[in-house]
């Protein structure tokens, strides 16, 4: 029974990674850049939700929506101010700028909200599902996290597959110059991509802090890095890849913690990543034929 | 494994090379790209000091043949014997050390480096000093570096490019970039030189000069040259044997005269004449 | 006379070399004077060895990222291996070796060598990956090293050296000493790093890299970065040179780690994390890829900068991040860059004119 429980916890953690990884992978697919600041957008989203609930006493749904709204605006703003001027610059310059933005967000949060960790309120009631005569307990938070991830995944697949903007995104990720010639507004497409990625980051932030309720300015960085690994693990640029990579990474992490060693769980996760990339250098689903966004 | 030039020769290999071993002996070469036979049953013999041409319409697979000869691709079928040795399973750098050098259709110079350094990189395997002497700047390091520089300047002078030695390779005019690629390839001291569209983008005067240069390179170094070219004046002017490729298959072989009058070749280039 | 002139004439690279060495030496003299005259704050004095260590780390990463052209986000891993090896070796030999500088040199060689060996072993499989994939794998490598060292226990007593992993099962005899205690890190380190040693090490690394760049191997590496297919076509074994450069880079990073580690009385594995890797990368990129002098200046300035920004207090790291973004935006702005190259050309022309007219006046 504990195996099943670990598995479900792993999928739940993996769902959070997957939602963050989707943001990484979409931005990478289109802008071909590693948006190092993505993890810190998560943190901002969590803080916004925290204050909406704690200081203003707003209902959780409004808090989440507010977080999404602000993160979307933040994502677009970052893209416009910091990344757009560097469209033609070498990728390393963009990477360093993204690192700069990450520092900026972390230190800005530190100034605004202090370094003391805040205890995130439980958004969902603490009810839990008891199965098999109480041998298996699944928290509502866990279930909602997994459900949110599945819904987002399906939504994104439909969006990129069927809508005009989704098709524009795919076109941009294939060949930006050709997309311009086809009359696609590449700048707008990139902005929309950042907007979606950042909104997802806000959701991930709320879910993350619901599961692990300590909120600090550095809260986003480690999950950010892990989600980034998850995106590469699944094949960066691929939406199903990010989903698969995130879920697998979550499961591996929880299992490593449960059965091998808590201290070494991170090392094990990263070791698996290296092994996978050595066997399959473009990640699990990172083939050219895979729909790239 | 070594095969002598078959007698009677196929009428392609020049008289002076008969009786000597073949420099390149390709038999039944083929490669598939996901079900497509990009090159199929390709057979070609080249003599020790021959200038040979490989022509054909765009997309016929000419550059693919070069990539197979230089081990950039590994063939699906067939054998390549270079100077009697099988090149199968070798890496491109190993093939180069065996004695095959090439230029590229889309120029691949070391753009950020100087013209001289480009040539020196080409001489990499012939400049011999230990890393220790490089770190300590021993007399042997200085001597070997100077020898290499002198030799590189000499090679550049083949194309009157000495005065450009310190220029950045990427800043050279187009024609000079093509010539530098040839110099760099020669610096590896090859026995077989593969030129991929050496005259592309050159004007008639430059092309005429290039023809002279290719001939004098062959005479001076005594090497074989295989070239891909669309400029028929160049191909017909200097090639002793020509192979025509279409849809990955050789459709004709022979002397320039034979190729010029071959109806299959004319059809491949101009399409079938409606009677 | 003609020969004299030839000898005195320095090429562009030679001039760069001379000014870079001169810069480091001049800085050393300057700092020494400040120190002797009591004009150096305690805080700055504490930064001297770390600055040298950061310079070495930046130089070593420049070999991988700038010269070889492969993005690595795990350089802290090699620094960490070097630091903890150096600390262990120095602590073990402390009772035997009385001369501090001998202790330092032995630790330096040991730390560099182990980091180099690990770099070699990691490089064999990993260097086949390209670009961002290599970046993520090196990042993972750095995190793995951090986790492993974080759970490592080393100690010694009269029975010899004891190792333990995950749990402190060293069971040292009476009078034994712990060198590395897992998450608590290394404590009671012999602080044998000195500013002079740091400067000499920086000079050594500079010498090493310039000599490398001036050799046929340096040319081969630059050629690979420029166009790997062409490099292969002229007979350069790409795998071999990538691996060699990566190993050298790791070796140097390890030495930087030894210098860094032996400067403190205690260090913990957690300090050698992604943030450190990124910090070093920032030095390299801001200093200019492949530009050794730039790496040194960037490492020096950016280490001192937060101290200089101290008056901004809480805002200093925020200011630092803004400076970072601004530099990237400015240096990559086409219009500004063109404007600057034009001004530079104008200045150069002006100087040549001045010099010519000056010579004319003498004659």
Written account of the structure:
- The complex is a heterotrimer of chains A (293), B (275) and C (363).
- By secondary structure, chain A is mainly alpha-helical.
- Chain A has one domain: ABC transporter involved in vitamin B12 uptake, BtuC (Orthogonal Bundle), CATH 1.10.3470.
- In chain A, the strands form two sheets. A two-stranded antiparallel sheet of chain A has the order 1-4. A two-stranded antiparallel sheet of chain A has the order 2-3.
- The longest helix of chain A has 30 residues.
- The termini of chain A are far apart.
- Chain B has 275 residues and is of the alpha/beta class.
- Chain B folds into two domains: 173 residues, 3-Layer(aba) Sandwich (Rossmann fold); 62 residues, no CATH class.
- The relative contact order of chain B is 0.17.
- Chain C has a three-stranded antiparallel β-sheet.
- The two termini of chain C are 18 Å apart.
- Chains in contact: A-C, B-C.
Give a brief outline of the structure:
The complex is a heterotrimer of chains A (293), B (275) and C (363). A 6-stranded mixed β-sheet of chain B has the order 6-7-8-3-9-10, sandwiched between helices. A 4-stranded antiparallel β-sheet of chain B has the order 2-1-4-5, with helices on one face.
Question: Topology, pairings included?
Answer:
The complex is a heterotrimer of chains A (293), B (275) and C (363).
Chain A: H1 2-31, H2 38-54, H3 60-83, H4 91-113, E1 118-119, E2 128-131, E3 136-139, H5 140-162, H6 164-174, H7 176-181, H8 186-211, E4 214-215, H9 221-234, H10 239-260, H11 265-279
Helix pairs in contact in A: 1-5, 1-8, 1-9, 1-10, 2-3, 2-4, 2-8, 2-9, 3-8, 5-6, 5-8, 6-8, 9-10, 9-11, 10-11
Chain B: E1 24-33, E2 36-46, E3 51-55, H1 62-69, E4 77-82, E5 85-86, H2 92-98, E6 100-102, H3 115-122, H4 131-136, H5 139-157, H6 174-187, E7 192-196, H7 204-221, E8 224-228, H8 232-238, E9 241-246, E10 249-254, H9 256-260, H10 263-270
Parallel strand pairs in B: 3-8, 3-9, 6-7, 7-8
Antiparallel strand pairs in B: 1-2, 1-4, 4-5, 9-10
Chain C: H1 2-8, H2 12-36, H3 42-67, H4 75-93, H5 100-126, H6 131-150, E1 152-157, E2 160-165, E3 177-181, H7 195-213, H8 216-226, H9 228-233, H10 238-261, H11 274-287, H12 292-308, H13 316-331, H14 334-362
Antiparallel strand pairs in C: 1-2, 1-3
Helix pairs in contact in C: 2-7, 3-7, 3-10, 3-11, 3-12, 4-5, 4-6, 4-10, 5-10, 7-10, 8-10, 11-12
């Amino acid at each position: 029974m504990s195996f099943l429980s670990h598995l479900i916890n792993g999928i739940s953690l993996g769902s959070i990674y997957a939602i963050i990884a989707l943001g990484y992978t979409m931005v990478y697919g289109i802008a071909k850049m590693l948006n190092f600041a993505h993890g810190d957008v998560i943190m901002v989203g969590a803080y916004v939700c925290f204050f909406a609930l704690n200081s203003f006493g707003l209902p959780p749904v409004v808090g989440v929506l507010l977080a999404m709204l602000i993160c979307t605006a933040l994502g677009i703003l970052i893209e416009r101010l910091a990344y757009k001027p560097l469209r033609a610059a070498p990728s390393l310059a963009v990477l360093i700028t993204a690192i700069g933005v990450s520092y900026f967000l972390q230190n800005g949060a530190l100034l605004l909200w202090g370094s003391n960790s805040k205890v995130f309120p439980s958004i969902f009631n603490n009810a839990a599902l008891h199965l098999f005569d109480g041998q298996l307990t699944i928290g509502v938070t866990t279930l909602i996290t997994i459900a949110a991830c599945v819904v987002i995944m399906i939504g994104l697949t439909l969006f990129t597959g069927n809508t005009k903007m989704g098709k524009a995104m795919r076109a941009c990720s294939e060949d930006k110059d050709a997309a311009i010639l086809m009359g696609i507004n590449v700048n707008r497409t990139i902005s929309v991509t950042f907007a979606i990625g950042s909104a997802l980051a806000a959701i991930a932030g709320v879910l993350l802090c619901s599961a692990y309720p300590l909120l600090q300015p550095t809260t986003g960085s480690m999950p950010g890095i892990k989600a980034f690994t998850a995106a590469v693990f699944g094949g960066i640029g691929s939406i199903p890849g990010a989903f698969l990579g995130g879920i697998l990474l979550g499961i591996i992490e929880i299992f490593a913690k449960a059965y091998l060693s808590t201290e070494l769980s991170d090392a094990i996760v990263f070791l698996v990543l290296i092994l996978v990339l050595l066997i399959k250098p473009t990640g699990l689903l990172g083939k050219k034929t895979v729909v790239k966004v | 494994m070594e095969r002598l030039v078959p007698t009677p020769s196929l009428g392609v290999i020049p008289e002076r090379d008969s009786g000597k071993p073949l420099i390149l002996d390709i038999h039944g070469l083929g490669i598939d790209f996901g079900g497509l036979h990009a090159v199929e049953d390709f057979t070609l013999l080249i003599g020790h000091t021959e200038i040979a041409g490989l022509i054909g319409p765009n997309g016929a697979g000419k550059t693919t043949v070069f990539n197979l000869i230089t081990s950039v691709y590994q063939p699906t079928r067939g054998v390549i014997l270079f100077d009697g040795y099988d090149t199968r399973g070798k890496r491109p750098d190993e093939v180069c050390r065996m004695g095959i050098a090439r230029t590229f259709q889309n120029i691949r110079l070391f753009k950020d480096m100087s013209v001289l350094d480009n040539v020196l990189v080409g001489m990499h395997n012939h400049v011999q000093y230990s890393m220790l002497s490089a770190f300590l700047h021993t007399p042997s390091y200085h001597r070997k570096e100077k020898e290499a520089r002198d030799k590189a300047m000499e090679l550049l002078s083949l194309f009157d490019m000495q005065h450009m030695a310190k220029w950045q390779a990427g800043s050279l005019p187009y024609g000079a970039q093509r010539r530098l690629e040839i110099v760099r390839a020669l610096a590896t001291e090859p026995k077989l030189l593969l030129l991929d569209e050496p005259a592309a983008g050159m004007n008639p005067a430059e092309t005429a000069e290039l023809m002279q240069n290719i001939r004098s390179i062959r005479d001076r170094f005594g090497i074989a040259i295989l070239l891909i070219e669309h400029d028929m004046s160049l191909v017909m002017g200097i090639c002793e044997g020509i192979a025509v490729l279409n849809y990955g298959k050789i459709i004709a072989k022979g002397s320039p005269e034979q190729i010029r009058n071959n109806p299959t070749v004319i059809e491949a280039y101009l399409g079938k004449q409606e009677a | 006379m003609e020969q004299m002139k030839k000898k005195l004439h320095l090429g562009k690279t030679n001039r760069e070399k001379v000014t870079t060495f001169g810069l480091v030496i001049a800085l050393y003299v300057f700092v020494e004077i400040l120190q002797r005259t009591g004009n150096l704050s305690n805080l700055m004095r504490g930064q001297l060895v770390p600055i040298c260590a950061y310079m070495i780390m930046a130089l070593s990463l420049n070999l991988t990222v700038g010269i070889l052209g492969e993005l690595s986000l795990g350089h802290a891993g090699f620094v960490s291996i070097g630091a903890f090896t150096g600390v262990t070796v120095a602590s073990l030999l402390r009772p035997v070796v009385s001369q501090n500088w001998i202790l330092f040199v032995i630790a330096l060689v040991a730390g560099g060598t182990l980091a180099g060996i690990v770099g070699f072993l990691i490089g064999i499989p990993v260097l086949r990956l390209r670009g961002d994939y290599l970046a993520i794998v090196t990042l993972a490598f750095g995190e793995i090293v951090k986790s492993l060292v974080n759970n490592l226990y080393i100690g010694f007593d009269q029975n010899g050296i004891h190792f333990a992993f995950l749990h402190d099962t060293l069971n040292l005899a009476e009078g034994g000493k712990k060198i590395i205690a897992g998450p608590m890190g290394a404590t009671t380190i012999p602080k044998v790093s000195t500013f002079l040693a740091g400067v000499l090490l920086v000079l050594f690394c500079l010498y090493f890299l310039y000599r490398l760049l001036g050799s046929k191997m340096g040319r081969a590496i630059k050629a690979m970065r420029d166009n790997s297919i062409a490099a292969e076509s002229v007979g350069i074994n790409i795998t071999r040179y990538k691996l060699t450069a990566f190993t050298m880079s790791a070796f140097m990073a390890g030495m930087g780690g030894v210098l860094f580690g032996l400067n403190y009385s205690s260090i913990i594995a957690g300090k050698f994390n992604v943030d450190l890797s990124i910090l070093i990368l920032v030095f390299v990129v801001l200093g200019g890829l492949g530009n050794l002098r730039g790496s040194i200046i960037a490492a020096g300035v950016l280490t001192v900068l937060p101290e200089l920004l101290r008056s901004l207090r809480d805002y200093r790291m925020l200011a630092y991040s803004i400076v970072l973004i601004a530099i990237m935006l400015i240096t990559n702005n086409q219009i500004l860059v063109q404007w600057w190259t034009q001004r530079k050309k104008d200045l150069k022309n002006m100087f040549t004119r001045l010099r010519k007219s000056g010579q004319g006046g003498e004659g």
